[in-house]
Amino acid sequence: MKCPDSISQERLIAYYHGELDDTAADALDEHLFGCDACADFVARLGELEAGVRRAVAERALPLVLTEALRRDLEKPGGPLREFSIEPGGVTPCGAAADDGWVVLNLEADLKGIVAATVKFTDDQKVLDIVHQDVPVDERASKVSIAYPGALLRALPDLIVEIRVVLESANGEQQELEYGMEHSASGPPA
Amino acid sequence: MAQMDNAALAARIRGGTSTAPDGAAEEAFCQRFSRRIFAYGMRHLHDYDGANDLVQEVLSRVLASLRDGAVTDPGKLESFVFGTCKFVLRNEQRTHRRRQEKLETMVREALPPESPAMLSPSPDPRLAECLAGLKERARTVLVLGFYGERSAPEIASELGLTPGNVRVVRHRALAQLLECMNARKGGLR
Question: Is A116 within 8 Å of A146 (Cβ atoms)?
Answer without folding.
Answer: no
